[in-house]
């Protein structure tokens, strides 16, 4: 077997123009449907986890002298973290509904082959 020929072909494959397959397009559509919900959820969760932590610090009087304000801020952080998942579900449903027709159509084309 000619190993030089195999190596040359594998290197040439890296530089050859690539055809987009339907599976790649389906994965891109799927991620496009899910990405906005994921980004929003992570951002929302991080912000309200920080709010909760600030409330805990205020309540324990690590920063400041107001326990009552700390408890209120902590409760606000807990509520924000608690509603994160339902908001995520709604945003995910919206994203899936937006791209559902294209995804289903492409999936049917792939499965019919």
Key terms:
113 residues; mainly alpha; 4 helices; elongated
Q: How would you explain this protein's 3D organization?
A:
This protein has helices at residues 3-15, 22-59, 67-82, 84-112. The model has no long low-confidence stretch (mean pLDDT 90). Helix content is 85%, strand content 0%. The chain is an all-alpha fold and 113 residues long. It is elongated and about 75 Å long. Helix 2 (22-59) runs antiparallel to helix 3 (67-82) and helix 2 (22-59) runs antiparallel to helix 4. It has 4 helices and no strands.
Write the layout of secondary structure elements.
Blueprint: H1 3-15, H2 22-59, H3 67-82, H4 84-112
Helix pairs in contact: 2-3, 2-4
Q: Which range does the strand content fall in?
A: under 5%
What class, by secondary structure content? Answer: mainly alpha
Q: Catalogue the unreliable spans.
A: none
User: Between the first and last Cα atoms, what is the distance in angstroms?
Assistant: 34 Å
């Amino acid at each position: 077997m000619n190993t030089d020929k195999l190596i040359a072909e594998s290197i040439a494959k890296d530089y050859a123009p690539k055809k987009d397959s339907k599976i790649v397009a389906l994965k891109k559509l799927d991620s496009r449907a899910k990405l906005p919900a994921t980004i929003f959820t992570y951002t929302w969760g991080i912000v309200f986890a920080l709010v909760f932590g600030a409330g805990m610090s205020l309540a324990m009087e690590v920063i400041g002298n107001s326990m009552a304000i700390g408890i209120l801020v902590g409760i606000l952080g807990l509520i924000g973290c608690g509603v994160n998942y339902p908001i995520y579900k709604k945003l995910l449903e919206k994203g899936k509904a937006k791209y559902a027709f294209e995804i289903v159509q492409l999936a049917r084309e792939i499965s019919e082959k």
